[in-house]
Amino acid sequence: MASSSSSEGKNEEREPATSKLKKERLGWMEWLRGWFYLAYEMLFQRIMASHLQNPMPLPPLNDLTCIITGSTSGIGRETARQLAESGAHVVMAVRNTKAAHDQIKKWQDEWSGRGLPLNIEVMELDLLSLASVVRFSKTWNARSGPLHVLINNAGIFSIGEPQKFSKDGYEEHMQVNHLAPALLSVLLLPSLIRGSPSRIVNVNSIMHQVGFVDTEDMNVVSGKRKFTSLVGYSSSKLAQVMFSNVLHKKLPGEAGISVVCVSPGIVQTNVARDLPKIVQAAYRLIPYFIFTAEEGSRSSLFAATDPQIPEYCEMLKADEWPVSAFISQECRPTNPSEEAYNVETCFKVWEKTLELVGLPLDAVERLLQGEDITCKYGAHEKKI
Ligand SMILES: NC(=O)c1ccc[n+]([C@@H]2O[C@H](COP(=O)([O-])OP(=O)(O)OC[C@H]3O[C@@H](n4cnc5c(N)ncnc54)[C@H](OP(=O)(O)O)[C@@H]3O)[C@@H](O)[C@H]2O)c1
User: What are phi and psi of 228, to 5 degrees?
Assistant: First the structure.
């Protein structure tokens, strides 16, 4: 797999940051660099991705079962449609099941006459409820079937909205974009092991570059940092990268599970639904720069299906410190932000995440050994 020129050799240059003093926020150089990458992606993503076909050609995927969260809209909807049209068994894990069923009907009508009916089903999942995540995982695992690809796509960016908390007590960006997908990934490990070689694809964002995670203040309530939706969103995306780094490192090669984060690019979807109307109008006026949902789905589809991904992930495992694969919007391996390499914080994020989602610290190790675990949020449901 070819590496992007901007990232070549960076892994070797980086030093583990374990010796740093406790960091309170992103350094201004890192912050500036993050914004530079963001502006660069916005302006040049189409040029950088000009080698990619649209839609991305996919091989026959009849042997794959894929769960895609948030597949009623935007990137997730496109990803689900294309995987299903290539023959995969697609599970739309969504909170609005009626919208998903309506969508399937539309796809089946459009597909009619082109082959066997699409193999798609709907399961309810609300990431704002950790109990819903446990319920979903338990129902899926009870089938005792394989899962080949989990795409943690659902996400929110409530631009300009006041700070909100889920009923579990967590800041909503952190819960929907990081905590709930992390819980889902861990709880579905038994099915992913059955489906091995399998993959966890986390739809992340270039915005993680301007994020900072304070594990003592995941809800951003201490007053050390002023909450804005940008802080909430970027921190949640960075937390996801850091958690993925450790998960990737903890999964032994024999488990056959690849963990990949992807950046879809800057994409015209409903993610901007909370923007003021005038900004939304401006957003639509710059279509040249912004990807369509179909273009934005390419990095997810690539991470879910490219045959070289498992080998690339294995190669990264040989690194001394944890780094999971990160695939750019132009479908090339790249590096996440410098802060994502802060090993000490990565392990703190790992521990804090497991604590917040109500899992034991050795959850992954126990699941790998075939043991049952319980999650605080599904206590009444007994075993996972
Ligand atoms: N668009 C971009 O420029 C961009 C850039 C970088 C990264 N991303 C990431 O790409 C992913 C997909 O976003 P998108 O742009 O396609 O946005 P979108 O059109 O708003 O789609 C988001 C999906 O997530 C679902 N969702 C939201 N909250 C949920 C919850 N509590 N439980 C279950 N599902 C929930 C939504 O379902 P409902 O329809 O029911 O709300 C929707 O299906 C996100 O992770 C986003 O952060 C997007």
Answer: -135, 165
List the domain range (segments joined by +) for residue 44: 24-381
pLDDT tens for each residue of 20-69: 456 777 777 888 888 888 888 888 999 999 999 999 999 999 999 999 99
**Closest ligand 1 atom to Cα of 77:** 43
Give percent above pLDDT 70 in the chain.
89
Question: Using a 6 Å CB cutoff, which residues line ligand 1?
Answer: 69-70, 72-76, 94-96, 125-128, 153-157, 176, 203, 205, 264, 266-267, 269-271
How many angstroms separate the alpha carbon of residue 240 from the centre of ligand 1?
15
* Among 271, 289, 327, residue to substitute to test ligand 1 (most atoms within 8 Å of Cβ): 271
Atom of ligand 1 nearest to the CA of 233: 47
Specify the ligand 1 atom closest to the Cα of 291: 3
pLDDT higher than 80, residue 5:
no
Name the pLDDT band for 148 (thresholds 50, 70, 90). Answer: very high
Q: How far is the CA of 362 from the centre of ligand 1 (A)?
A: 30
| CATH number for the domain that contains residue 81 | 3.40.50.720
Is the pLDDT at 173 greater than 80? The verdict is: yes
- The domain tally of the chain equals 1
pLDDT tens column, 315-370: 998 877 779 999 999 999 999 999 999 999 999 999 999 999 999 999 999 999 99
Nearest CA to ligand 1 atom 6: 205
- Return the higher-pLDDT residue of 366 and 4: 366
- How far from the centroid of its chain's Cα atoms is residue 337's Cα? 16
Centroid of ligand 1 to alpha carbon of 233 (angstroms): 12
What's the whole-model pTM score? 0.93
Amino acid at 284: R
- Which DSSP string do the residues of 217-258 spell out, in sequence order? -TTS-SSSS---HHHHHHHHHHHHHHHHHHHHHHS-GGG-EE
Is 233 annotated in the active site?
A: yes
Distance between start and end Cα atoms, the chain:
37
For residue 168, being part of any structural domain is answered with: yes
Inside any domain, residue 282 = yes
Judge whether 8 lies within some domain.
no
Given the residues 37, 170, 233, 377, select the one marked as catalytic: 233
Closest Cα to atom 17 of ligand 1: 271
Tell whether 16 is covered by a domain.
no
Residue 203 burial class via C-beta count within 10 angstroms: exposed 0-12, middle 13-18, buried 19 and up: buried
Instruction: Give me the helix-helix angle, 229-250 and 343-356, nearest 10°.
Output: 100
